[in-house]
């Protein structure tokens, strides 16, 4: 069981690395937000799943298990809300997409 | 056991690397997104340290950090949209 | 905004009480069989008080709509079997794009139609799409009785509304319909 926990945590560390590299390399705000979602979902959920297995089957500490489950539920429920709020706010504040962007149907509909 | 500690150090180092983007990020929205990501990475370090030391108090701190990070990011988003 | 009805307040109070149990760690003492009655009564009163003020923001349609074993069963199936597979595929795709040297991205904002009627179903579909990396919902709009989402997509495969909708929503919409309609 302990090796499953190690595998989950190393796996989430890989996705966190990919998200950080993406955040440093991506050209504009919205693409950087996509990489930030990468850190939040698989990085955090991998760590939480590993922690639930470890505290349930190795430590037998059920208070920690319930706290970890609450944290995972909270992250899953609130990450989309803040991502949605800040994407809309950044667009209305005037952040532009890069010039190579394929299409912008939001701007076309707002100008009508 | 020590895999937890090494991975926690990895997450904190990744959070420190993100400070580069926090400094050069051109607009306010970039900085808010990066601050949220740093928050999440520090949370992961705290969870792993709680598992390493076997004490539940670090999980309380991680939960409060998650709540405050969510509120702060949403507030910055609403402010940039001009509806606050 | 209309006033909240009594069943709406009751439904919100039940959810608040469950969340309070989880957050304060009282569930562990309940499982151990030694609950302290005073603390539980205090939590019950506080959750009823919170629900009386916040129910009108939280429940807009039929209350007790969700407390149905069939719906909870399908929601658990969705959360355990269906959604993690989609999440893994999208995560792997975005990680590959971020780590490959040429940075192969084609960003753009597309407009996709949504056929769901229920507000809860629309909220769940929008949250699921935002939670998968590669797509972020920017805004929702209603035109001629039909709902549309504006989605920022990191790899625009098609600019047509229907094709882009099929590529983004996939089978998530069918499951949202099965849970909430």
Task: List its traits.
heterotrimer, B: 84 residues, mainly alpha, 87% helix, C: 181 residues, alpha+beta, 2 domains, three-stranded antiparallel β-sheet, 3 strands, 61% helix
Fold blueprint:
The complex is a heterotrimer of chains A (112), B (84) and C (181).
Chain A: H1 2-25, H2 29-57, H3 62-93, H4 105-111
Helix pairs in contact in A: 1-2, 2-3
Chain B: H1 2-17, H2 19-24, H3 28-53, H4 57-81
Helix pairs in contact in B: 1-3, 3-4
Chain C: H1 6-24, H2 26-32, H3 37-58, H4 69-99, E1 108-114, H5 119-131, E2 135-143, E3 146-153, H6 161-169, H7 172-180
Antiparallel strand pairs in C: 1-3, 2-3
Walk me through what this model shows.
The complex is a heterotrimer of chains A (112), B (84) and C (181). Chain A has 4 helices and no strands. By secondary structure, chain A is mostly helical. Chain A has one domain. The relative contact order of chain A is 0.13. Chain B has 84 residues and is an all-alpha fold. Chain B has one domain. Chain B is built from 4 helices and no strands. In chain B, α1 packs antiparallel against α3 and α3 packs antiparallel against α4. With 181 residues, chain C is α+β, with helices and mostly antiparallel strands. Chain C has 2 domains: 53 residues, no CATH class; 112 residues, no CATH class. Chain C has a 3-stranded antiparallel beta sheet. Chain C is globular, with a radius of gyration of 20 Å. The mean pLDDT of chain C is 82.
* Elements of chain B, N to C (H/E): HHHH
Instruction: Calculate the terminal CA-CA distance of chain B, rounded to whole Å.
Output: 47 Å
Structurally, the number of domains of chain B stands at: 1
What overall geometry of chain C do the principal axes of the alpha carbons give? Answer: globular
Largest interface: A-B, 48 and 45 residues
Specify Rg of chain C, calculated over alpha carbons.
Answer: 20 Å
Q: What is the total domain count of chain C?
A: 2
Number of extended strands of chain B: 0
Q: Helix- and strand-based class of chain C?
A: alpha+beta
Report low-confidence residues of chain B grouped into runs of 5 or more. none
Report the oligomer: heterotrimer
């Amino acid at each position: 069981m302990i090796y499953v926990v190690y595998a989950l945590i190393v796996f989430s560390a890989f996705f966190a690395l990919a998200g950080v590299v993406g955040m440093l390399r991506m050209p504009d705000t919205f693409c950087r937000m996509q990489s930030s979602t990468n850190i939040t979902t698989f990085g955090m959920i991998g760590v939480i799943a590993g922690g639930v297995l470890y505290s349930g089957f190795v430590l037998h500490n059920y208070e920690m298990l319930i706290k970890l489950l609450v944290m995972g539920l909270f992250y899953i429920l609130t990450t989309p809300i803040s991502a949605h709020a800040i994407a809309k706010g950044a667009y209305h504040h005037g952040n532009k997409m890069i010039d190579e962007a394929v299409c912008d149907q939001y701007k076309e509909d707002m100008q009508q | 056991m020590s895999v937890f500690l090494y991975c926690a150090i990895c997450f904190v180092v990744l959070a420190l690397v993100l400070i580069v983007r926090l400094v050069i990020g051109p607009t306010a929205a970039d900085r808010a997104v990066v601050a949220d990501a740093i928050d999440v990475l520090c949370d992961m370090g705290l969870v792993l340290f709680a598992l390493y030391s076997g004490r539940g108090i670090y999980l309380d701190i991680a939960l409060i950090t998650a709540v405050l990070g969510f509120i702060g990011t949403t507030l910055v988003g609403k402010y940039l949209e001009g509806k606050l | 905004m209309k006033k909240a009805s009594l069943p709406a307040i009751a439904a919100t109070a039940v959810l608040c009480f469950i969340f309070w149990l989880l957050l304060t760690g009282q569930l562990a003492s309940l499982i151990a069989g030694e609950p302290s009655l005073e603390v539980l009564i205090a939590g019950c009163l506080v959750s009823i008080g919170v629900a009386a003020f916040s129910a009108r923001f939280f429940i807009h349609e039929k209350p007790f709509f969700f407390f149905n074993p069939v719906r909870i069963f399908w929601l658990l199936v969705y959360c355990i079997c269906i959604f993690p597979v989609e999440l893994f595929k999208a995560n792997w795709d975005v990680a590959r794009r971020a780590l490959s040297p040429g940075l192969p991205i084609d960003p753009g904002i597309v407009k996709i139609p949504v056929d769901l009627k229920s507000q809860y179903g629309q909220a769940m579909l929008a949250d699921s799409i935002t939670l998968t990396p590669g797509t972020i919902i920017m805004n929702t709009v209603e035109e001629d009785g039909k709902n549309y989402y504006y989605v920022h997509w990191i790899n625009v495969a098609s600019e047509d509304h229907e094709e882009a909708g099929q590529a983004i929503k996939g089978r998530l919409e069918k499951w949202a319909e099965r849970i909430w309609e």
